[in-house]
């Protein structure tokens, strides 16, 4: 499965920003300004970063070097401290990535005769061993074909993955990321995260990724506020 994902990546068109240099940074900076967001340029581990606020909470989105072996090229990653129920744990990932991680986890456990969760494993593999996958009829079948939702409880999963958030995850601007391109959003310890392969590496994809993340933050605040 990992090899099949890599083959898909290798046949994709080159990123739209690949040869645009500072023009791409200027384009992103100009767009961020129209949203009232901060923009900062390159550092050793990133190409740029965006900073904003949602419902009074700060968030940051970066484009940079991948932090996971299953992501090729560059990665978009985001983080926000939301102040929601810290016990809630929910993970949404595209289904081909889950299948690849399931296969990898199975190989690791069988090769090493492991019977318990190993803290040295990548955290995504530990999540697969820790959390149950849930589904519910209120979201359309095509969402479940593209994404998997894992969580500590069904109630927390449903409280976060609203119809509005599911719609954002399904309707990327064309050409948009291929369904097999690794992508995940998650809630852990009161924080929201996004991690995805930046492909196609164009401004519409960046805009929509930021929209998904801010929508995910709003949905978490609405559905999982402390004392709700």
Q: What would a concise description of this structure say?
A:
The protein is an alpha+beta fold. Helices cover 40% and strands 23% of the residues. The protein has one domain (2-93, 132-224).
Mean pLDDT: 86
**Major sheet description:** 9 strands, antiparallel
Order of helices and strands: HHEEEEEHHEHEHHEEH
Discrete helix count: 8
Distance, first to last CA: 41 Å
Helicity, as a percent range:
25-40%
Structural class: alpha+beta
Structural overview:
The protein is an alpha+beta fold. Helix 7 runs antiparallel to helix 8 (203-224). It starts with a helix and ends with a helix. 40% of the residues lie in helices and 23% in strands. Strands 1-2-3-4-9-8-5-7-6 form a nine-stranded antiparallel beta sheet. The chain has helices at 2-10, 22-34, 95-112, 123-130, 141-146, 154-160, 163-170, 203-224, and strands spanning 38-40, 46-54, 57-64, 75-81, 90-94, 132-134, 147-151, 183-188, 191-197. A hairpin with a 5-residue loop joins strand 1 (38-40) and strand 2 (46-54). The model is unreliable at 4-23 (pLDDT under 50). It has one domain (2-93, 132-224). The relative contact order is 0.20.
SSE layout and pairing:
Layout: H1 2-10, H2 22-34, E1 38-40, E2 46-54, E3 57-64, E4 75-81, E5 90-94, H3 95-112, H4 123-130, E6 132-134, H5 141-146, E7 147-151, H6 154-160, H7 163-170, E8 183-188, E9 191-197, H8 203-224
Keywords:
23% strand, alpha+beta, 9-stranded antiparallel beta sheet, 228 residues
């Amino acid at each position: 499965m990992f090899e099949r994902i890599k083959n898909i990546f290798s046949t994709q068109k080159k990123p739209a920003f690949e040869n645009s240099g500072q023009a791409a940074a200027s384009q992103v900076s100009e767009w961020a300004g129209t949203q009232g967001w901060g923009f900062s340029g390159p550092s050793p581990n990133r190409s740029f970063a965006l900073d904003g606020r949602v419902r009074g909470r700060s968030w940051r989105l970066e484009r940079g070097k991948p932090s996971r072996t299953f992501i090729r090229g560059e990665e978009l990653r985001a983080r926000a401290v939301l102040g929601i129920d810290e016990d809630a744990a929910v993970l949404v990932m595209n289904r081909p990535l889950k299948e690849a991680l399931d296969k990898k986890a199975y190989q690791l456990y069988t090769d090493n005769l492991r019977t318990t969760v190993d803290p040295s494993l990548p955290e995504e593999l530990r999540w697969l061993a820790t959390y149950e996958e849930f589904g519910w009829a209120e979201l359309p079948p095509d969402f479940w074909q593209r994404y998997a939702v894992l969580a500590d409880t069904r109630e927390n999963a449903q409280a976060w993955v609203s119809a509005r958030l599911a719609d954002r995850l399904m309707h990327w601007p064309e050409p948009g990321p291929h369904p097999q391109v690794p992508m995940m959003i998650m809630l852990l310890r009161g924080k929201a995260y996004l991690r995805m392969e930046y492909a196609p590496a164009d401004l519409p994809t960046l805009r929509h990724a930021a929209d998904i993340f801010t929508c995910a933050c709003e949905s978490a605040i609405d559905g999982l506020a402390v004392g709700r």
